[in-house]
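User: I'm new to structure prediction. If I give you an amino acid sequence, what do you actually give back? Let's try with this one:
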Amino acid sequence: MGNILVTGACGQIGSELVPALRNLYGKNAVIATGHVTKPTKELRNSGPFYYLNIMDKEQLAKIVMDNDVETIYHLASVLSAVGEQNPQLCYEINMNGFYNILEVARKYKLKLMAASSIAVFGQDAPKFNTPNDTVMSPETMYGITKVCEELLGNYYFKKYGVDFRCVRFPGIISSETKPGGGTTDYSVEMFYAAIEGKNYICFVRKDTILPIMYMPDAIKALIDLSKVEDSKLKHRVFNVNAMSFSAGELEEAIKKFIPTFSCEYKPDYRQIIADSWPKSLDDSIAREEWNWKPEFNELNKVVEDMIKKLKQKKFYD
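Assistant: Good question. You get back a string of structure tokens that encode the predicted 3D arrangement of the chain. For your 317 residues, that looks like this:
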């Protein structure tokens, strides 16, 4: 087996995917890359790391060739909220950067694992149990770029045989890395405020319901999908679901463990984005084709684990 390259390794998903992959395949078999966010000491000391601008096709190809890469996990991306503040940058990185990744995958016959998002859906899609295959009419630049990524990946699979596989994620809660400009960032920021004894001002309404996943399940989804025999897959892009809850329900769940926590709700431009997204996902196709099943589908279980991890992190930091 050849080596694995991870783009966006310093981001929310990448910072936890890289250690998981290194535990599975060995520290030298996983090449971590990043560009904007500075890598942690743990990331740099646990295996190979390169600064990589995915807009630089030559540098990308050189890293692939020099490190005998066979699989790319492409996570480098400008997220939804930041993308609305700078749609031109969002297009440049998410579209042109992804095209460079696709071309490298085509030329060197690589497997390409990608991360998509509920942002591909808009107001025209069903709000509850949004199907895997339904109308996609996103209302953000981020969502538009993710639809294009999905379509291009499917095209390269059919046209060139690129083994493209993509997980369509809900919002993600994680303890290791703070979120970086997404519309569901409140679901992580709330925890940090509670741990630090601060009041939190939430940028969506209290009754805003969105599908959310705990990071261990996000990592599990990517790795599980990568291992499936190609012959078993009828699709290339898959919804994955775990749980759905409102911002207010998250506040109350945190208060069970930290009763002094308080939260105010002052919706901003991100409320419009959240209102355009599904409230829950139908992931039956992922369950059928590669036996997807989340391990964390209860809010209280996630909250308890998150608070435990963040308290430990605060102590050691």
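You can read the tokens as a compact description of the fold. Here is one thing that stands out. Residues 10 and 39 are 6 Å apart (CA to CA).
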